[in-house]
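Q: A reviewer asked whether we had any structural model of the full assembly, not just the individual parts. We don't, so I'm hoping you can provide one. Inputs are below.
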Amino acid sequence: MKNKSKQSKSLTGAEALIKCLETFGVEYVFGLSGGAAIPIFDALVGSKIKLILTRHEQGATHMADGYARATGKPGVVLVTSGPGATNTVTGILTAMMDSVPMIVLTGQTIRSMLGKDAFQEADIAGITMPIVKHSYLVKETNDIPRVIKEAFYITNTGRPGPVLIDLPKDVTSAPFTGDSLDPAMDIPGYKVPARPSTAEIKKFAKLFKGSKKPLLLIGHGAVISHASQAVRALAEKLNAPVTNTLLGKGAFPETHKLSLGMLGMHGTAYANKALVNCDLICSIGSRWDDRINGNNDEFCMGAKKLHIDIDPAEINKIVKPDMSLVGDASEIVAELVKHVEALDTAEWQKELAYYKKEFPLKYKTDKGLTAQQVLHELYEVTKGNAIVTTDVGQHQMWAAQFYLTNDGDKWLSSGGAGTMGYGFPSAIGAQFGKPKELVVAIVGDGGFQMTCSELSTIFVHKLPVKILVIDNKYLGMVRQWQELFFDNRYSGVDLEGNPDFVKLAEAYGIKGFHVDKTENVTKVLTDAMKYPGPALIHAEVIKEDNVFPMVPAGKSAYHMIIEAPTTKLEKPTGST
Amino acid sequence: MNEIADKKNIHTISMLVANKPGVLVRVALVFARRAYNIDALVVSPAFNEKFSRMTITAQGDPKTLDQIIKQVNKLIDVIHVSEHSDVDAVHHELALVKVKFTPATKPHIAKLTKKYKATIMDTTKNVLVISQSGTTAELNEFESALKKYHLIEMVRTGKVVMARGHEET
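A: Here is a predicted structure for the entire assembly that you could use as a starting point for your response.
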């Protein structure tokens, strides 16, 4: 920077850090203060970066995650050492598993005390090593600008992922005497895949030739690379049906006639039928995860398998493809479209239309209020235009089934990690990033109680986030497994002692709504969505209800259960 | 030798990494998470002191190895990584062996030492320390030949490898 020597002399390490964050366009820092981070919090005073004080560090990480997924920009977290740092672990894992760009700044004890069990010392770089894309323990004040620059580059290029920067207090307190706040990076080992050659893409395109039953599988990679236009062009040119993973929702419009919706463990029957019967499957940014591929030996048997991914380690990890292309989905698919030819899929589409008609997603309204009805009505009331976040469990699967998505940036859910407590704080982050959008957090009564202390955060900032609590008074997904596979032996699933969620909201100064009758849902949801400020809707739904279709863990889609079984099921062999 | 190695699923992986604290942990985690046992590990500064050379000998399912190499390659601090066979690289290892001798056995041990191009480094009381360098197979052979004498202990460095010809290791 200009006037470097003059300017640098007056800066502390922490001030240099904040200046660097400003340079990278950081609008918000989500965090919670503490002793070892005081110099950094001090440097935030007077900065144009807005500090969002959360009530727990996990909340801060999910907010940063929600902000990142909604805007495409890295979310920034600032916490203190020790427990402050360890409380970010769940959020870091969540971001890592779902390839979310995030910078986590942790305060640390002073250098001379490292490794001496100092007060609030935790080896956070060591603890998080397996769940970060990269991490730093900064030992020299003058390294701060380079580390920040590298971190921002690493976190959001290639396959995005979280970067942790551990900052000893004396490093941030000491004067910054470096030459520049914009130094050269020093990461010779970091490789961002280049675009494959046109010749390779042409070869890939040829493999589609002759397919009668093609299927495009769209994953989170397509969302991250903003490949939706290219994906749509490809599907329409090929006349190929499209299915999406949980995190691929929206990268291809779920309302499009070629869309089969979500596939997998709780995917639509027709998407899973397509998976079983296709003669070619092309994954665009999906990692053939065990929610869609419970048994690799029976996965798309006989079908040609094609794989597009930016991460070379995903190729051959689960599925051995006939051919793969490593690179950015948007770039690759845009080129691929030019080289493929239309396929004759009339018969295939007829077959799938039959499945759609025969096995639609459905729910009952005669036995009381169901989660499915609430979520379906939410879709109708918002016309599918809201940014929706979810927690993890039954409500998440029902939301995926009934809240159709046409824009990948508007569906935020913890897929890989399956983190309960994600939904509400991520909605807060999304609302900060997209202040003009309607943001709805769909949460279960279990997960919501893990991070509901952030009600203070939305109250303080008057954020118009809407929280839809689907309350069945159970940890419903586990209860479903226990009912289906464990002889109804309920263990550790009864959420007896739930609070009155409306009163809970009101205690934080937030408007509460309540619904427990099928006939009131539309009105309550309409009123709540129109409410000009934060609001919580407490939807009490029937206690015992199951998500179907279901592919038992460890099984292939051939073993899909479409409706509630009447006979006892064997225990699943898959992980969870 | 190759056959034995293949049967036991032993792999030699060489990598060039940034010479920074914590890199070894990052690499080791990739192996440990996939239940790969590291048999031997050699780390030393590379020609360019900004980097270190790591040579890892590990046992495990070859199907997993491809994934391990790719995951190691993804580490920001890893410049490059590759697996080396005997065919494409020179392998070498060093051992120190401690053997107890009697006047009767000493000439036999000395003869073996000569045969395997090893060197007696130290004689203290009735104990020899012998140094041998060579391929893993040669070291294994020498070890079994010495077993009929009183072998007290052995320390091996683990393999280092270097690609043949112009290819970079």
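A: Points you may want to mention in the reply: The first strand of chain B starts at residue 10 and ends at 18. Strands of chain B lie at 10-18, 37-45, 51-59, 78-83, 89-100, 119-124, 127-134, 150-156, 160-163.
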